[in-house]
Amino acid sequence: MAKLSDSIENLFARFGPHVEQVPAGGWAPIGEADKLVKTHCCFCGQQCGIQLKVKDNRVVGFEPWEEFPFNQGKLCPKGVKRYMQNAHPDRLLSPLERVDGAGFRDLAWEPALARIAAEMKRIQGANGNDAFAVLTGASLTNEKAYLMGKFARVALRTANIDYNGRLCMVSAGAASKKVFGIDRAANPWSDIPKAEVLLIAGANIAECAPITTDYVWRARENGARIIVLDPRMTPIARTVDLFIPVKPGGDIGVFNGMLHVMIKRGWIDRAFIAAHTTGWEAVEKAVEKYTPEYGAKIAGVPASLIVKAAELWGPAKTSFLLHARGIEHHSKGVDNCLAALNLVVGSGRIGREGCGYAMITGQGNGQGAREQGQKCDQLPGARDIENPEHRRYIADVWKVPEESIPHKGLSAIPLVEAIHAGRIKGLLLLCFNPLVSLPDQNFVREALEKLEFFAVIDFFLSETAQHADIVLPGSLMEEDEGTTTNVEGRVIHHKKAVDPPAGTREEWKIICDLAARLGQGDKFAYASTKEIFDELRVASKGGISDYYGITWERIDEQMGIFWPCPSLDHPGTPRLYEGAKFGHADGKAHPQPVEWRPAAEEADAEYPIILTTGRTVAHYLSGTQTRRIGALVGQTPEPWCEMHPRLAGKLGVADGDFVRVESRRGWLTVPARVLTTIRPDTVFVPYHWPFDRAANRATIRAIDPVSNIPEFKICAVRVTKAPRPDDALAHLPPQAGGLS
Amino acid sequence: MANAIQKGVVRATLWGLAFAALVVAGVLVGSRGLKDFDTALVPYAGATVFASFGLAYRYAMWLQRPPTRLYWFRGWQIFLKPSRLPANIVLLVRQLFSSVGAQSFIARRGAARWAAHWFISWGSLLAAAITFPLSFGWIRFETLRTSQEQYQAFVFGLPVFRFPLGSVLAVLAFNALDISAIMVLIGLGFAMWRRARDRGALAVQQLSGDLMPLFLLFAISVTGLLLTVSTHVARGFHYNFLSQFHAVTVIFTLLYLPFGKFFHIFQRPAQLSIEFYRRASAAGPQATCLRCAKPFAGRLHIDDLKQVEAALAIKFAAPPATTGIQGTHYQDVCPPCRRKLLAITQDGLWRGHGRPRPEGP
Amino acid sequence: MSELAFFIDSSRCIGCRACVQACEECDTHRGVSMIHLERIDEHDSVQTAPQVCMHCKDPVCARVCPADAIKQTPEGVTQSALKPRCIGCSNCVLACPFGVPNYYGKIDQMMKCDYCYDRTSAGKKPMCATVCPSQALAFTTLEEIGRTRQGTAINRWVFGAEVVETKVFVVVPRGTREVRPDLVQLGGSRHDPFDVAAMLEGA
């Protein structure tokens, strides 16, 4: 059913991605704008404040918003050019219906919605409720994330809803919850410059969280020592005190080795451990064998680096750990985070000024979208879907019987596998482009092709939407109003800047309409997203991520409010765990012993090189938006394969040559970049591009047993020199999967 | 130093006087000893003589700047090189068409800017081509003694051609100034529209430098057109006042000519010479960068620049005592390497000051 | 509180090109980016550096201009070449000790960073320094730099025997009086290469 209905070239010609080189209104000087709308960038979890310039109901430019405390006007290139996605020629302006062999034809809203509802009923009637699944995204506002969870459980009554935050934050979240009881950065960013030592683990801050750079440098100006763990020298790593070019997957060797040294040298806060933790003995026991030499073997670095790291981290009075996908995108992602958090617990440096840790959220609403109940195992307020008390509370809010709420469903990867296996036959997807972002692309494509019915809501026709039976045109962040929760746990307000163009609709209206067609209209009778937020506040009340005291007005007044904020007179909670009060019922931290284990697929004789993947500063996630903005495509038009000259020499590859990167699952052909700043046993390819340029063609569908995050950071490949591709795809522009 | 400046002023003044004298001589000769001179146009001619003094003075002062002098002479040298002269003349003609005629280089900066400039410049040039010869008595029109219906045009007192009163040529000839005024007004319309809208222009434009010339041209054009209206439509309504007002605007503009924005009309042809210079520089040997060893400009250009810098006391040549490297000259570093050197030096200062550099154990 | 000034600390730069993207949003040259962002070496370093116009007190570019086309504002901002005058000779491009001016063949003109004159003359901060995520480019006061940075801000440069003072400051270690970015101060022109393989073998 969901095979491509036309050639990639034809679909490209009609739907793009084309690049918009000229802003709405042209390059002519803007003059006075009609209004400046104080809102936020939508292109990463930092959610920088920005003012959009609006003229004639179009976003024509921007002005920095220096008063917003998080970024004080600072923006990365994505933020600078974000305004150019508005009024884009690729914008979908009508519902589409696939026509086999001829692409898509325009369809009116009424028949489009009617068909989706009919297919939902048909598939669920024939195969059970769970046979129709929902996949959503972490770039949705809190309101939409909440609505999607409710829609799946109340209107569609399927257990199978999950989201692309599964590819992003779940390892960090699971580890934080296990140790401290709350899934959120423990500190506001303002604590970073106050720390004496920073440990930056698996976080390419310069490219993936650029605004955080100034916080790191402010710490350095204050005399902080900085440690960076990364298989590649990142721009930050160039001038830090200690750069540990760790082998992908070897992080536990460094963390456990550091802890081993700290224990040996007496750099453990015994009083803190005794008063505020349980289970520390098991941790100590586990790291006993992790001498620096043992850790070094796992980490693939000299043991002395581990000792040095311990010497910097151990005796400090204040410290801050920053970690991100580099340690989280593993089949042992949760364990990696746990091992890192043990360094925080052991030092006792948490819950105070300049002491703590943070996970660097990647997706726009990576923090908020995982709290509102669109994860397969969660209800709003970060509540547990299997906890009877939690279920009852939410059932009351939703005015449905508790037993009508489905139980835990499948997470993203098993969900796609269930589609592939034919157990799930229908899919509604929005804010997600799995045909770029999920690992093992060939498998994912096969799965989508097996769907009996596939509906997508998106503002552009993403590579995934190309497979849909019905596509509904949605709205951009600046066309709707709502809240997100930034990297710090600060709930912020996205204001509406312009109306959605004629022919499109706000997603929440589409979802409410569908709910009505499924007979649940009374539970989705919202007049505005503000009403959804007010219900969300009640639904989160008493939960871990308590938003009850947060109103849109308060957010505007205080430039964002940190959850938990249980009452209207509560100031919000920028720093968690003050006074060492942790989120578990016993108020204590629960450090976990961690044992290293190999990746799902290590390099071997047949596939001797490790492929690791990541982001680049000019692009956001699957590139559906940023691959359509000319300035960003100009900055980074296509992916590349980064390799050390020693490896390149062995492979007979010169800088600029094309290489075929091939795993057991698939291949991609990209140009090589030969440089000395990467480990010689590892190659790196950024993942924002589709088809033959997709790093995720090669990556492996292995997941962490706890968080279910895929192992994007390690798979085994072989790399061979290849001629420059000359097929039809290669002649498309680079943003479409071609070459520049 | 002060002495040199004084000398320069004296020299420029002499050039100015000489050129003004030349113009006076031209008037005397061209009007056959003032026989054809229209005394009503005396103020115009007088202002023109003053403007010629000013222009020559300013041009001479300009040419005293070392870079200007060097490229002025170098430009002629390259242009007049006998082996290249024929090709150069062809190129010059082509350039005159594109750069002066069509002004295509301005079109590439913006359509509104081009439209403004093209209409203003050609309107003004047309007007100048008529008024100067008229006011100098170089050309005049008379009806034939034999026929009131026929006009005779004289240039330097010599009858050149004749045309009937009602002919298209006559209409054009007698309304040429009105046509030029309308062209200028169209151009001014574009210019003001752009300047009122373009926030970049709003930020950098200055009243005296950018807006004043537009006001002057506007005043000339409007008063000139009103004269025509007064004559043909309003039966001489306020004709005297208008004609005096028009004269005042023209004279003021003439006096402003050497000192304001209009001076670019005389400077700008240097652009034509630069094209020849650029070609010669590109055809000759190339200078390579001291740091990256890549060619980055013509040897001719770099050597000339070093001369200019020496004349301006810009001391990029490193004193051997400080570098230990004999004869390094900063002018031999290409611009990208200069930028990199700044960063490397600044970064190096921090390293030297103990900022860590991650290194092996 | 003293007046706002422009400060560069290239050692903070992460090469994200936010400045390059933001530069073309300025109304004096919308659609054309003036700032330079150098990758020092593509193959053995991740070092990058931004370069804005330093706005010399006695600009070399203006002195070598045969057309007298480069002017300073009363605030000491050196403007792009005056369009009616610039003859496109590129003298300024080659002579500027900081490598700042750009020659645009299409319009046969020099254009350069003009301190975001449309913004700074109206009390706003330059685009590049406002957005710069690393604050390698900063627009603030000397006091604030003194309070928040380890270094000190200076504006005196020596090229060969030429001393240049600029409106824009550079942040250098305390005690540094001037910067000599010619081949002198460091005894060479090489950057700091970095080789992960060599480092791993260092054990």
What would you note in describing this structure?
The complex is a heterotrimer of chains A (740), B (361) and C (203). Chain A folds into four domains: 19-85, Phosphorylase Kinase, domain 1; 96-168 and 367-571, Rossmann fold (3-Layer(aba) Sandwich), CATH 3.40.50.740; 170-359, Dimethylsulfoxide Reductase, domain 2 (3-Layer(aba) Sandwich), CATH 3.40.228; 609-736, Barwin-like endoglucanases (Beta Barrel), CATH 2.40.40.20. Chain A has 23 helices and 26 strands. In chain A, strands 5-4-17-16-15-6-7 form a seven-stranded mixed β-sheet, sandwiched between helices. In chain A, a hairpin with a 4-residue loop joins strand 18 and strand 19 (490-494). In chain A, helix 4 packs parallel to helix 19 (507-517). Chain A is globular. By secondary structure, chain B is mostly helical. Chain B contains 15 helices and five strands. In chain B, a hairpin with a 6-residue loop joins strand 1 and strand 2. In chain B, helix 1 runs antiparallel to helix 2, helix 2 (42-63) runs parallel beside helix 10 and helix 3 (66-80) packs antiparallel against helix 13. The longest helix of chain B is centred in the middle third of the chain and has 30 residues, at 168-197. The radius of gyration of chain B is 28 Å and the shape is elongated. In chain B, 29% of the residues are buried. Chain C has 203 residues and is of the alpha+beta class. Chain C has a domain at 5-57 and 115-201: Alpha-Beta Plaits. In chain C, the strands form three sheets. Chain C has a four-stranded mixed β-sheet. Chain C has a two-stranded antiparallel sheet with strand order 2-3. A two-stranded antiparallel sheet of chain C has the order 4-5. Chain C is globular. The chains are: A alpha/beta (740), B mainly alpha (361), C alpha+beta (203). Chains in contact: A-B, A-C, B-C.
